[in-house]
Design goal:
The complex is a heterodimer of chains A (324) and B (349).
Chain A lengths: L1 H33 L7 H19 L2 H25 L4 H24 L22 H4 L3 H11 L4 H19 L1 H11 L1 H6 L4 H27 L11 H11 L4 H21 L3 E2 L3 E2 L2 H18 L19
Antiparallel strand pairs in A: 1-2
Chain B lengths: L1 H29 L5 E3 L10 H17 L4 E3 L5 H12 L5 E4 L4 H10 L5 E4 L8 E6 L1 H15 L4 E8 L2 H17 L4 E8 L8 H13 L4 E5 L4 H10 L3 E6 L10 E7 L1 H14 L5 E5 L6 E3 L11 H16 L7 H4 L13
Parallel strand pairs in B: 1-2, 1-3, 3-4, 4-5, 5-11, 6-7, 6-8, 8-9, 9-10
Antiparallel strand pairs in B: 10-12
Helix pairs in contact in B: 2-9, 3-4, 5-6, 5-10, 7-8
Classes of the chains: A mainly alpha (324), B alpha/beta (349).
């Protein structure tokens, strides 16, 4: 029984680690899409940020500088997206895809030029990474049977970016639903003309939203290369930007439901890792392929049958043209 | 007048042509072959399999002979065949194709260019102009399995594979046999990263798999997963456990926690193929390189010297001698697609 409990707790623990970049990236997407900009470039921004963070951390020797570099690069790409789609009213999907391709190519080319290791960055040393923190009071909590285990294995022992991701969600909720900026953000995604009529700048609001998204996406990328792993490897985002986008739709563009979607994806991933090679009585060993496809199958089933209709912000994907 | 001038020009240019071709003749004698290599999609710098071909094959051949090896890194599966055909069309050869996934591409390219010499690593293609080099990974894995079982204090060791294919199961099976040979009660945890080519380049997943194995009690984890291994070694180092590298000598990657590496001399195999091409004695056919041929081995260097005690070293070298002598026959997973107990092994020794 204790073993089972520990396994379960450790699975949740892994789920937290895996879902952290998804949470950060989908919150970034939430800001962009709530303001009316489709952000398919999440993947590319994460990748570019992961590369920038690992490069800066390895050269300058500090994870915090790495994090900053990641955020700056990601914001830069966000502004590029904004320049193409807000200022020049270009197609948002095309611009996003361009960012993805740009990031995939540039990260390898610059990596080759700077480090000569085939697009990888050098492995980070201990001081150049974010490490797991031990929360205070583990010893006291250990005396309480169930809660002690949960506290020690699940809640304590993550790096600072994991905690940051979970703190950010309620902040995002508060910003979107309880501040003036949030109200305007939601309005500009639904009906930019009304916002414009009220005398507010649609352009400025959308740029602001993209900038916030850029920051969050930058943290997500830095997490991948300097916290969860210890170097940048090519295409290391491995589609997580798109999964974050799926979680955004899955969660109907609302912070807490998006968070649950991210946790679900992370949990399925963690379960898949642990189910491998497990012999189930009467059935035998489950094939790797089946386990691998489970998250996708479940996503399809849940999306198709259980979450109901996902209605995006009304003006998402439509450039705002004043004269219309 | 005009005609004579023209004649003169023709004559002179003819002379030039002759001289030119003589010159060319000399240069072609010096560089008689145009060797080439096509890496698999994990890329040249995977710190493992492909990188072994690059460092111990391509660079060494360039250093020894001065001949540059043309390299191609396909980024997706459709480019494999195109790359091979392009190289053959431009007169390259011997062309080394790295990895089992090149088999169908080699087959079609070798049929289209029957005069070009192809060498494939890790797979057998039975065509008259193809040399197939395979390795007895089960023998090398057996050795590191013995070492893992000796090092393990928990009695649980782990294995993280890349893509779930018989070749990787051969690594796993050899490792399992070695570990059990050393300690019949040992528990072996096995995970595969995935079932597509992406499984060779997913350090994040590799790290998560390793964490899950360590949480389940493993204290030595062997990775046979290409670039995914980077994450395995990192996770083991982060948690203060041991890892075993693969293909290249990877002991340097996490000094202090890399117990050893199962070295597979793919670089030498490529080198030999080009050298044979240069010497004019390249032969098609099939080679299986094991411990006896020096095709696989375990790595001991300054990075893991302190982790391997004299007793462990003696034991592994003893087992190695026994395998070479034929006293131990390591079962090959790929011979019957099952991992049965090895023949001729007395578990109580």
């Amino acid at each position: 029984m204790d073993d089972l409990l520990l396994t379960l707790v450790l699975t949740f623990d892994a789920a937290l680690r895996v879902s952290t970049p998804l949470i950060l990236a989908s919150m970034a997407g939430l800001f962009a899409e709530r303001s009316g900009i489709v952000d398919i470039g999440l993947e590319g921004k994460m990748l570019a940020s992961a590369f920038a963070a690992a490069s800066a951390a390895t050269v300058l020797g500090s994870p915090w500088i790495g994090l900053m570099a990641g955020v700056i690069v990601s914001c830069g790409l966000s502004m590029l997206h904004g320049f193409a789609t807000i200022t020049h009213k270009g197609d948002q999907i095309v611009s996003g895809v361009a960012i993805n391709i740009l990031a995939a190519g540039m990260s390898i080319i610059l990596g080759l030029a700077w480090f000569g290791q085939g697009g990888l960055t050098p492995t980070l040393t201990y001081d150049q990474r974010f490490h797991s923190l031990s929360l205070p009071g583990i010893d006291i909590m250990d005396n309480i049977p169930l809660i002690g285990t949960i506290y020690r294995e699940l809640i304590s022992g993550h790096n600072v970016l994991v905690y940051l991701a979970f703190i950010i969600v309620p902040i995002v909720w508060w910003v979107v639903y309880r501040t003036r900026f949030g109200l305007r953000l939601r309005a500009v995604g639904e009906n930019p003309k009304a916002v414009d009529t009220a005398g507010l700048s649609v352009t400025k609001l959308r740029y602001k939203a993209l900038l916030v998204g850029g920051i969050l996406c930058g943290i997500a990328g830095a997490y991948l290369s300097i916290a969860h792993n210890a170097q940048f490897t090519r295409d290391m985002t491995a589609g997580q930007g798109f999964i974050a986008l799926a979680a955004l739709i899955f969660g109907k563009w609302k912070p807490y439901t998006v968070l649950s979607a991210c946790l679900l994806f992370g949990f399925l991933d963690a379960v898949a890792v642990r189910l491998q090679g497990v012999v189930i009585p009467g059935i035998g060993e489950i094939p790797v392929q089946l386990i691998e496809s489970t998250p996708y199958l479940l996503t399809v089933i849940l999306l198709a049958g259980f979450i109901g209709k996902a209605v995006p912000p009304k003006s998402v994907g439509v450039p705002y043209i004043k004269e219309l | 007048m005009k005609y004579t001038l023209l004649g003169k020009v023709i004559k002179q240019s003819g002379l030039l042509l002759v001289a030119g071709s003589m010159l060319l003749g000399v240069t072609t004698l010096q560089a008689e072959i145009k060797p080439a290599v096509v890496y698999d999609t994990a890329g040249k710098f995977d710190k493992s399999f492909n990188e072994a071909v690059f460092r111990n094959g391509v660079l060494k051949f360039k250093a020894d002979t001065g001949i540059r090896v043309t390299e191609i890194e396909p980024t997706n599966s459709t480019q494999r065949e195109q790359s091979l055909k392009k190289l053959a069309k431009r007169g390259h050869g011997p062309i080394v194709a790295v990895g089992f996934s090149m088999a169908s591409a080699i087959e079609s390219a070798a049929k289209a260019y029957p005069d070009t010499h192809f060498t494939i690593i890790d797979m057998v293609v039975g065509l008259p102009n193809v040399q197939s080099v395979v390795f007895k990974e089960h023998e090398g894995s057996f050795l590191v399995g013995v070492l893992a079982a000796m090092k393990s204090e928990t009695g649980v060791v782990g294995f993280v594979g890349g893509m779930d294919i018989p070749l990787i199961r051969r690594f796993a099976c050899g490792y399992e046999q070695g570990a059990k040979y050393q300690n019949n009660n040992i528990e072996i945890l096995q995970n595969m990263t995935g079932s597509t080519g992406a499984a060779w380049n997913n350090p994040t997943k590799g790290g998560e798999l390793t964490r899950s194995q360590i949480e389940a009690g493993a204290d030595v984890v062997y990775a046979a997963a290409g670039g995914t291994g980077i994450g395995v070694y990192q996770a083991a180092a982060d948690l203060g456990k041991y890892a075993i590298g693969v293909d290249s000598n990877q002991n340097y990657m996490q000094p202090g926690t890399m117990l050893t590496s199962m070295v597979k001399r793919v670089g030498d195999a490529s080198y030999n193929s080009w050298q044979a091409g240069l010497d004019g004695n390249w032969k098609a056919g099939f080679q299986a390189l094991g411990l006896a041929e020096g095709g696989v081995d375990w790595a001991l260097d300054e990075h893991n010297r302190e982790l391997v005690t004299a007793a462990m070293e003696a034991r592994v070298n003893d087992v190695k001698a026994k395998i070479i002598a034929g006293d131990i026959t390591v079962h090959d997973y790929m011979s019957d697609n099952t991992c049965a107990a090895p023949q001729g092994i007395n578990f109580s020794n």
